[in-house]
Design goal:
The complex is a heterodimer of chains A (83) and B (432).
Chain A lengths: L8 E4 L3 E4 L4 E4 L12 H9 L7 E7 L7 E7 L7
Chain B lengths: L22 H10 L18 E4 L3 H14 L4 E4 L15 E2 L6 H15 L1 H5 L10 E5 L2 H16 L5 E3 L1 H7 L15 E5 L3 E2 L2 H14 L3 E3 L4 E7 L2 E7 L2 E4 L2 E4 L5 H8 L6 E10 L9 E4 L4 E5 L5 E7 L11 H14 L8 E11 L6 E4 L5 E5 L9 H14 L13 H4 L6 H4 L4
Parallel strand pairs in B: 1-2, 1-12, 2-8, 4-14, 12-19
Antiparallel strand pairs in B: 3-7, 4-6, 5-6, 9-10, 10-11, 13-16, 13-17, 14-15, 15-16, 18-19
The chains are: A mainly beta (83), B alpha/beta (432).
Chain lengths: 83, 432
């Protein structure tokens, strides 16, 4: 069987494994710089720059159509496997 | 060079190889059953090139072609991890238009349409450009307001665009449901006569043939594994087939562009999302325009063979997986039937996905980077194919002259550090 061929199931701590279509992809959580000390360059890097890896990534999803909790999962961006 | 050729090039500058395609040649080969010569050749990978272009799609091949044709730079290699046009160039829905929102965007895409109009003659390759007109439907007062804004910006730039009423839409597309009873009633549309569709594979092959004829080496199945940078300058490219010494590298890899830029140590504000499309079985011609609905997240056109080609907005999460999903085709079918209820019995033949390198402002990232000799032509998101010729022309000029051409000066990577974005979301995104 081809990996990632089936639907993507996300492990919600409250609801158990649920279909990814119930969730909203929030993405990589970037550390927010201190607005009092950050330079404009640091602030814009925080706004715009994201790692865009082809492989395992740690990201946040929001269970929009379920318990409305945020969860952190590891997903492989080429096969969409979850671990 | 910009504006001087207008897509046409004098015939005497055409290279001797390959032989010209002509009706007589077609007849002769038809009668004699002679094999067609290959349109481009295979070459051994040399250990050094003046310019290495990564990505053999429409952008990379167009840049190679214009480097050779406009600037006489022919020691060029175009590398691709797969076959020609295996990325976005062969996966898009082949819609061309220039009715954008910002003056910078409208000027840029209009130049591309001009080049596309002369492309078949320029490349001696039938690219089947059909300027059949492009309709963007407005289902709300807010989107009608954006249409008026776009129409006015377009007119100032000399691009043919106007807002039309539902009655006029019905005349152009009789199968469209423009009644007030629809779930999302059509209030008006932006009518853009120069827009249309093209055969995207033919554009890629035509550029490949033209570049190859002028001495460019095209290397398929050659994956780039690393870029050597020393002292802030590009020194070479490492590939699965051997190392290449070069001083200029152009990254034209769309969905994979951050992976290549990471090799050179250049951070780019790009995230890769899949975009899905689908095609139906062929039916008799009934749809003579391209129809786009932002609210319903769908665009549709009918090919010369009669198939309906559908596209939508990008998938809701980042991924490098080019797979189709059931959610997409279910949603698409509902939206298409909302627009054209008569299509209930038409069957979908296949669906596929391509990768889109999305930027925060829906404008591309083009030009030079902090690494000397490393240039990018990326951030093409969902609108890259229509910009192929102008991007190739501008990037070729950028490489040849070392200066950023005026037409792409607004699209530099530095704009994200300076905070001067070119917001095109209102005209480039389907779902907004």
């Amino acid at each position: 069987m081809v990996k990632g061929w089936l639907m993507i199931l996300l492990p919600c701590a409250w609801c158990g494994p649920r279909d990814a279509s119930e969730f909203q992809h929030v993405g990589e959580s970037a550390a927010r710089p201190d607005p009092r000390t950050a330079t404009p360059q640091q602030w814009r890097a925080y706004l715009y720059l994201r790692a865009n890896p082809c492989g395992w990534t740690t990201e946040t999803w929001y269970h929009r159509m379920g318990c409305r909790r945020f969860l952190t999962v590891q997903r492989h961006t080429e096969t969409n496997e979850i671990r | 060079m910009l504006g001087t050729t207008n897509g046409h090039r004098p015939r005497q500058r055409r290279a001797a190889y390959p032989a010209r395609y002509s009706a007589f040649g077609l007849l002769r080969r038809g009668l004699t059953h002679q094999e067609w010569p290959p349109a481009w050749r295979q070459h051994p990978l040399r250990s050094s090139y003046d310019v290495v272009i990564i990505g053999a799609g429409v952008h990379g091949l167009a840049a190679a072609y214009y480097l050779a044709a406009n600037h006489g730079i022919t020691d060029v290699a175009v590398l691709d991890q797969g076959y020609l046009g295996s990325g976005g160039s062969g996966r898009n829905t082949a819609i061309l238009r220039s009715n954008y929102l910002t003056p910078e965007g409208v000027r840029f895409y209009d130049r591309s349409i001009q080049l596309y109009r002369g492309l078949a003659a320029d490349l001696d390759f039938n690219v089947m450009f059909s300027q059949r007109g492009h309709l963007t439907l407005a289902h709300s007062d807010a989107s009608l307001r954006t249409m008026r804004w776009r129409a006015e910006v377009n007119k100032v730039q000399g691009v043919d665009s106007e807002v039309i009423s539902p009655a006029e839409i019905k005349r152009l597309a009789p199968f469209l449901d423009v009644t007030e009873q629809a779930r999302y009633p059509v209030l008006g549309a932006l009518w853009h006569p120069p827009g249309g569709i093209i055969r995207h594979d033919a554009v890629v092959w035509g550029y490949a043939r033209g570049a190859d004829a002028r001495g460019v080496h095209i290397h398929q199945n050659t994956e780039v594994t690393g870029i050597d940078v020393a002292g802030g300058r590009v020194r070479g490219v490492r590939t699965g087939r051997g190392d290449i010494a070069t001083g200029v590298v152009l990254n034209a890899t769309a969905g994979w562009s951050t992976l290549i830029s990471d090799m050179a140590g250049v951070a780019m504000p790009i995230q890769t999302f899949p975009l899905q499309a689908a095609v139906t079985e062929p039916v008799r011609p009934f749809l003579s325009t391209v129809i786009v609905s932002g609210t319903l997240h769908v665009y549709v056109s009918q090919t010369d063979r009669g198939e309906l080609v559908f596209g939508a907005s990008v998938d809701p999460f980042t991924s490098y997986a080019m797979r189709g999903s059931l959610e997409f085709i279910e949603g698409l079918a509902g939206h298409v039937l909302e627009l054209m209820p008569a299509l209930t019995k038409v069957r979908v033949l296949r669906q596929w996905a391509g990768l889109c390198d999305m930027t925060p402002d829906f404008s591309p990232v083009m030009g030079r980077t902090p690494v000397d000799g490393f240039l990018v032509d990326a951030g093409w998101g969902t609108y890259g194919f229509k910009a192929g010729p102008v991007s190739g022309e501008a990037m070729a000029e950028c490489i040849a002259s070392g200066q950023t051409p005026e037409i792409i000066s607004a699209f530099g990577l530095q704009r994200f550090g300076e905070g001067v974005l070119v917001g095109e979301k209102g005209a480039a995104a389907v779902g907004h």
